[in-house]
Amino acid sequence: GKFPTTEFGSPKIVVVMRVFLTKSYLLTPRCNEEVEVPSMQENAATRFIELRKRVLPFPKLGTKIHRLVAIPTTSGTGSEVSPFTVITDDDGKKFPIASYKLTPDIAICDSTLCDTLPKSLIANAGIDAITHAIEAYVSVAQNDFTKMHALEALELLFGNLAESYQDGTIESRDAVHRGATLAGIAFSNSFLGICHSLAHKVGAEFHIPHGMTNAILLPHVIRYNSSENPTRMGIYPSYGSPVAHKRYAEIARRIGAVAPDSEGLIEKIIDIMH
Q1: Cα–Cα distance between 1 and 141 in angstroms, integer?
Q2: Bridge partners (DSSP) listed for residue 70
Q3: Residues ≥6 apart with Cβ < 8 Å to 65
Q4: DSSP code per residue over 205-258
Q5: Band of the pLDDT at 50, cuts 50, 70, 90?
Q6: Is residue 187 scored above 90 in pLDDT?
Q7: Tell me, what DSSP letter sits at residue 91?
Q8: Helices of type H across 72-208
Q9: Do 150 and 136 contact (CB within 8 A), yes or no?
């Protein structure tokens, strides 16, 4: 029932609180075990964001359903390739669940299943996918693989979402559908940022569609993250200095923004929303 107590001043840290995790997920040292820690930054850093660090064991899956096949009927969430799910109760409260055990074995992506979507859902899901790709690209856990998927997703989404919304052509619907899945692959491996964190809370509280909430918040989040001298910064081995502003500029250049910087990216987001 107490917070962990640590001793600093020497190159060792003593963990005095037992963390209640199942044995297979136990990644924290046992009670009173001494661990060599070369530096504070290295101690706080991790080479991989491990979803299995949890205070409760995740139930064993696969006993009744041996293979999970996901078929998306919207073009936005990327849930057909992600380890995340959100359950909404009768009162509208959202419960996000994260586990790689939830990742589907097979994803069947057929854009014709989205042919009858209402325009509001096309717009909201599309902006959600754009937010997925942007936040995955500037994440502290970004890597060459997520970067590739995120940029390709953004090119497809910015190049086709407006046409998919206005005209619903086969080509544009298919491009947006593929872009949403690529964005899902990207954020499943580099994770999201403060825009999604805020959007889940704000959307649930005020009953605003998730994509619309992202659209409202995203320009402000980009400006906040673009600071070259941030007051807060995540600690991660591959993220040694603030580079979010450079990554926003890379996105802006890839999608053909007039200004190759974060403001140019914001203008493209506002244009596509209009």
Answers
A1: 32
A2: 107
A3: none
A4: HHT--HHHHHHHHHHHHHHHHT-SS-S----BTTB-S--HHHHHHHHHHHTT-S
A5: low
A6: yes
A7: T
A8: 119-138, 144-166, 170-190, 194-206
A9: yes
- Please, how many CA atoms are within 13 Å of residue 98, restricted to the half-sphere of its CB? 12
Written as six digits, the tokens of 258 are: 């007039």
Helices 244-254, 144-166: crossing angle, 10 deg rounding: 50
Banded model confidence at residue 25, pLDDT cuts 50, 70, 90: very low
Q: How far apart are CA 227 and CA 221, in angstroms?
A: 11
Q: Taking residues 21-49, what's their average pLDDT? A: 41
Residue with tokens 């450079």: 246
* Sign of the Cα pseudo-torsion (200, 203, 207, 210, in order): negative
Mean pLDDT score, 74-92:
87
Angle, alpha carbons 15-17-23 (nearest 5°): 95
Give the SS3 label for residue 23: helix
Q: Both tokens of residue 4?
A: 């962990």
* Bridge pairing between strands 12-14 and 34-36: antiparallel
Using one digit for the tens of pLDDT, what is the confidence trace for 199-236? 988 888 888 889 999 999 999 998 888 887 777 766 66
What six digits make up the tokens of 178? 């593929």
